[in-house]
Specification:
Layout lengths: L8 H9 L10 E4 L4 E3 L13 E4 L2 H6 L3 E2 L13 H4 L3 H10 L2 H14 L3 H12 L3 H19 L4 H7 L5 H12 L3 H7 L12 E6 L7 H10 L6 E4 L2 E7 L4 E8 L4 E7 L5 H11 L6 H9 L5 H6 L11 H10 L5 H15 L1 E2 L9 E2 L3 H5 L10 H16 L10 H9 L6 H12 L10 H10 L5 H7 L7 H9 L12
Parallel strand pairs: 2-4
Antiparallel strand pairs: 1-2, 1-3, 5-9, 6-7, 7-8, 8-9, 10-11
Helix pairs in contact: 4-5, 4-7, 7-9, 8-9, 15-18, 15-20, 19-20
């Protein structure tokens, strides 16, 4: 078990006294005299150190009887970076809880996905986070409820069930306990200039992140590789369709200096928590850029790249299986050719959707639909057809699992056992689909070219040896190295 930052009292006190927003989400401050919990950057006068105690999660604060601060709204902090950089039981469980698995499948379903007993999962989460899976899911439901209360005109009964509560009474009791306000009082206190939804199921919200965030390669990559019908760049926003547990959605994500503006249209509001989680994951918003950049800056050859444009994120995905399929389609072809291949599959096998704004037409095909595709209909070399059909067959029958709960090392090994999968394909899937922050691409042509220009070793073996000092953030080093090229993936679209 890893010890969290909340156990370092002296460091936590310093962060609170300096109102350091970099630590929002790392830990929470509970004030013994007021029974309120805050994020480290809370704007109020810090309490005396003797009156502070620290917890690793909002759920632990709530379980200990503390209420959320009305000023700093600690329940809306960025997520802990721990769950992005780790692949142990706790991190995998937290990613699943964020994806709504406890609400849909209960704690037994969570444990089954992780391959542990319910008791083991509960004990591990309680030991490290001060709260079990039910309490963590409850805290997430409370946050979703608050978001719906404050940003939509929906009736409270609809909000209760959309947020995942089993009854209106539980919804009312939880909101009152967590926020010391009734749902109607929360709505009354909400800003009056909240956006008015323009379509049924439409929501506008802000996704927080830890600064700095460089949007260039993040949105540039997504826009340059966008599959027509599924993704587009329009009026300063990246838009795409989402396949979700209860239905489908369309999201528009716009970079702003202090947040990402997120406009969601959902066919079923019960998918809100999952949609937000996947959008945050897509944009790598829970990363800790200070820790990452500080380590990469220690290499004198990387330091100028980091100093020039700090805060680069790894562009990820909202659908791991989709990304793996697209990685195979992109083997040894140009970005434009890969988009063309994917667009043909989308038109022929994707599920149609209605986009109120036009432009988006389909969900990316499910693995089941792709497994039924006639290989002879695929316009690609025979060897790549075999790679494609083998991958989708394994994804469809579950023998290869790319979900948020997957073990990174084990999944990479399974991918390498498939025909046509070399280190580049396995590692780009590990980096962008699995979310491994240490995935590295030493054989990538762009990386080798950048390395040679910077004076880094350019052969894969020598570069891998040099990159040992960049661990566990080699996936971020890849973003800085790629950024030396003038490829469209490195530039925010105009």
């Amino acid at each position: 078990m890893q010890t969290g930052m909340h156990t370092d009292t002296e460091r936590c006190v310093r962060a609170v006294q300096s109102k350091d927003a970099r630590f929002d989400g790392w830990f929470f401050t509970a004030v013994l005299t007021t029974r309120i919990y805050c994020r480290p950057s809370c704007p109020v006068v810090p309490p005396k150190p003797a009156n502070m105690t620290f917890y690793p999660s909002a759920a632990a604060c709530q379980q200990a009887g503390f209420r959320a601060c009305k000023r700093c709204r600690p329940d809306t902090s960025p997520g802990s970076p721990e769950w992005n950089r780790r692949a142990d039981l706790t991190a995998r469980a937290m990613r699943l809880i964020a994806d709504g698995v406890v609400d849909r499948e209960g704690v037994p379903g969570l444990a089954a996905r992780l391959g542990y007993s319910t008791r083991q999962v509960e004990r591990q989460l309680l030991a490290e986070l001060g709260a079990g899976p039910l309490a963590l899911a409850r805290a997430q439901r409370a946050q979703t409820a608050r978001l719906l209360i404050e940003t939509t005109p929906l009736p409270m009964a609809d909000i209760a069930f959309a947020a995942g509560f089993s009854s209106i009474r539980t919804f009312n009791d939880t909101v009152r306990e967590v926020y010391a306000l009734s749902p109607s009082e929360l709505r009354t206190r909400a800003p009056r200039n909240r956006p008015v939804p323009t379509a049924p199921g439409a929501l506008s919200l802000r996704l927080p992140f830890r600064a700095p965030l460089n949007p260039d390669n993040l949105f540039g990559h997504l826009a340059a590789t966008a599959v027509p019908g599924v993704e587009e760049w329009r009026e300063g926003a990246y838009r795409r369709t989402l396949r979700l547990p209860y239905g489908h959605g369309i999201v528009a994500l716009t970079p702003n200096p202090d947040h990402i503006a997120c406009r969601l249209t959902l066919s079923d509001l019960r998918d809100l928590t999952v949609a937000i989680s996947r959008c945050r994951r897509l944009l790598d918003l829970d990363a800790d850029p200070t820790a990452i950049d500080d380590q990469l800056r220690a290499d004198p050859l990387l330091a100028p790249l980091v100093d020039k444009a700090p805060g680069r994120r790894v562009p990820r995905t909202v659908d791991e299986a989709e990304f793996a399929v697209r990685a195979v389609l992109g083997q040894q072809v140009s970005t434009a050719a890969a988009r063309t291949h994917a667009a043909r599959l989308v038109t022929a096998h994707g599920d149609p959707v209605d986009d109120p704004e036009g432009g988006l037409t389909h969900l990316f095909p499910s693995t089941g639909a792709l497994a039924a595709v006639d290989p002879e209909a695929l316009a690609m070399p025979r060897t790549r057809r075999t790679t494609f059909t083998t991958l989708v067959a394994h994804l469809a029958d579950g023998s290869v699992n790319l979900g948020v709960e997957s073990d990174w090392a084990e999944t990479r090994a399974r991918l390498l056992d498939l025909p046509g999968f070399g280190p580049w394909t396995a590692d780009v899937i590990a980096m962008r689909a699995l979310g491994d922050p240490d995935a590295f691409l030493p054989t990538d042509l762009g990386i080798r070219r950048a390395a040679a220009e910077l004076g880094l070793p350019s052969t894969p073996a020598a570069l891998t040896a040099r990159a040992t000092a960049w661990r566990p953030w080699r996936a971020y080093a890849v973003q800085y190295l790629w950024a030396t090229d003038d490829h469209p993936i490195n530039f925010l679209p105009v």
